[in-house]
Amino acid sequence: MKIEEELASVLRAEKITLSTAESCTGGSVAALITSVPGSSEYFKGGIVAYSNEVKENLLHVSAETLEKYGAVSRETVMEMVAGAMKTLKTDCAVATSGIAGPGGGTPDKPVGTIWIAVAYKDEIITMKQSENYGRENNVRNAVQNALELLLYLLK
């Protein structure tokens, strides 16, 4: 069974609603979730927040967090995932923010650095993806890791 189908099964069985907040994955997490027929039963929506302005205004990420830690940080994705649940009124959420490449990396945050956060009720789990396999693979890996992490949290 594919990860998105396994996730769908858990969400349906437990009647859990889901939302997404994505930066570097550009909606790819939401696309995979909604590739499952009947996903409207549990998926409420997603926000693609490429700019800090959208992260602040729609996902309630504080300007202080963005200033102190940057958009690509554990702190930012934790606020993004909580913001998605608040804005879209869901039980759980997934958030991603990173540097997919090929450019944009820095010595502190090289290309391939992607932070993922998943939340269910009051619990948040994060993970840092740090290998660079090229833009397409970096995004694909982040999507897969995000869904696996959410499934882990829900079980």
Provide structural commentary.
The protein is α/β, with parallel strands linked by helices and 155 residues long. The protein contains six helices and five strands; from the N terminus they run αβαβαααβββα. The protein has a five-stranded mixed β-sheet with strand order 2-1-3-4-5, with helices on both faces. Helix 1 (3-14) runs parallel beside helix 6. The chain starts with a helix and ends with a helix.
Helix content: 40-55%
Rg over C-alpha atoms, rounded to the nearest angstrom: 14 Å
> How many extended strands?
5
Q: Major beta sheet, specifics?
A: 5 strands, mixed
- Mean pLDDT, all residues: 97
Question: What overall form do the CA principal axes indicate?
Answer: globular
Report how far apart the termini are: 16 Å
In sequence order, what are the helices and strands, one letter per element?
Answer: HEHEHHHEEEH
Question: Per DSSP, what share of the residues sits in E-state strands of 2 or more residues?
Answer: 15-25%
Specify the number of helices.
6
Helix/sheet category: alpha/beta
Strand order of the largest sheet: 2-1-3-4-5
Show unreliable segments: none
